[in-house]
Write a structure and sequence with these properties.
The chain is of the alpha/beta class. The protein has 2 domains: 30 residues; 173 residues, Rossmann fold (3-Layer(aba) Sandwich), CATH 3.40.50.360. It is built from 8 helices and 9 strands. The strands form 2 sheets. Strands 1, 2, 3, 4, 5, 6 and 7 form a 7-stranded mixed β-sheet that branches. The chain has a two-stranded antiparallel ribbon with strand order 8-9. β2, α2 and β3 form a beta-alpha-beta unit. The longest helix is centred in the N-terminal third of the chain and has 26 residues. The protein binds flavin mononucleotide (FMN). Flavin mononucleotide binds next to α2, β4, β6, β8 and α7.
C-alpha cells in the first residue's frame, strides 16, 4: 500500500513536470531586441521628447526609434526607450507613447506606465501610437473596435494626438500558442508597417511638441 502510494506520487510528479514542460515550450519565444536611442535637435530648442514603447516581438521598438529620429529631423531632441526602463518623466517636455496590441488591448506595462505617471503626463503634450493587425482601416466598425485598445489609457489621460498603424507579425518571433492565436483569428501576417505614413504623422506632430526656442 505504501509502495502504491509512493508510485502514485512519483507518477503525479512526473505528470506535473510534463505539463509544466509543455506549457513552457508552448509559450517560449525569442526575446525582442529593445532599442535605446537618443538624438539631438536644433541647438536652440529646449524640448526633450520621450518616445517610449511596449513590445513583444520588437517591431514597435523600431517604429519608436524611427519616430524619435524623425522628431530630431524636425529640430527637437528625442529619445526612444523601452517603457520598462523609464522610471520617471523628469527632464522631458513631451511624450510619445506607443504599444503593440495583444488580445484587444495595449500591453499592460504601457497602461501601467500611464497610470503611474498620470500627473506628469497630464502636464505635457502626449501622443499615442498603436501597432496592430486587426480592425484595420478607417471604417466605423474598425474605428470603434480599435478605440477600445487604448480606452484604459484614455480614461487616465487625454492625448494631444492618437494614431493607429498597421504592425508586423513574424511567426518566427512567436511562441507556439501565439502562432495558434494568430491562426485562429485569421490575422494577416508579415510586415505591414507603412514607414511613409508613420513619418508623415510624426511631421504633423512635431510642431505641437515644440516650445518657443530660448
Ligand atoms: C498573440 C497575438 C495577439 C494579438 N492580438 C491582437 C489584437 O487583439 N488586435 C490587433 O489588432 N492586433 C493584435 N495582434 C497584432 C500585434 O499587435 C502586431 O503584430 C504588432 O505589430 C506587434 O508588435 P511588436 O512586434 O512590437 O510586439 C496580436 C498579435 C499576436 C502575436
Amino acid at each position: 500500500m505504501r509502495l502504491m502510494g509512493r508510485r502514485r506520487f512519483v507518477f503525479a510528479l512526473a505528470g506535473v513536470a510534463l505539463v509544466a514542460l509543455g506549457i513552457r515550450s508552448a509559450t517560449r519565444r525569442p526575446a525582442p531586441t529593445l532599442i535605446n536611442s537618443a538624438c539631438q535637435g536644433a541647438p536652440r530648442m529646449t524640448d526633450r521628447i520621450l518616445v517610449t514603447y511596449a513590445t513583444r516581438t520588437g517591431s514597435t521598438a523600431e517604429v519608436a526609434d524611427a519616430i524619435a529620429s524623425r522628431l530630431c529631423d524636425a529640430g527637437l531632441s528625442a529619445e526612444a526607450r523601452p517603457v520598462t526602463e523609464v522610471t520617471n518623466l523628469e527632464g522631458y517636455s513631451g511624450a510619445v507613447l506607443g504599444s503593440a496590441v495583444r488580445f484587444a488591448s495595449w500591453l499592460p506595462e504601457m497602461t501601467d506606465f500611464v497610470s503611474a505617471n498620470r500627473d506628469a503626463l497630464s502636464a505635457m503634450p502626449v501622443a499615442f501610437f498603436t501597432m496592430h493587425m486587426l480592425a484595420l482601416g478607417d471604417g466605423p466598425a474598425a474605428v470603434e473596435e480599435s478605440a477600445k485598445y487604448t480606452a484604459e489609457a484614455r480614461d487616465l489621460i487625454t492625448p494631444t494626438d492618437e494614431v493607429f498603424f498597421e504592425g508586423m507579425i513574424d511567426p518566427a518571433r512567436l511562441s507556439f500558442l501565439d502562432r495558434l492565436a494568430v491562426r485562429l483569428v485569421k490575422s494577416p501576417v508579415g510586415d505591414r508597417r507603412d514607414r511613409e505614413r508613420i513619418a508623415a504623422w510624426t511631421d504633423r506632430l512635431a510642431p505641437r511638441f515644440a516650445a518657443v526656442p530660448t
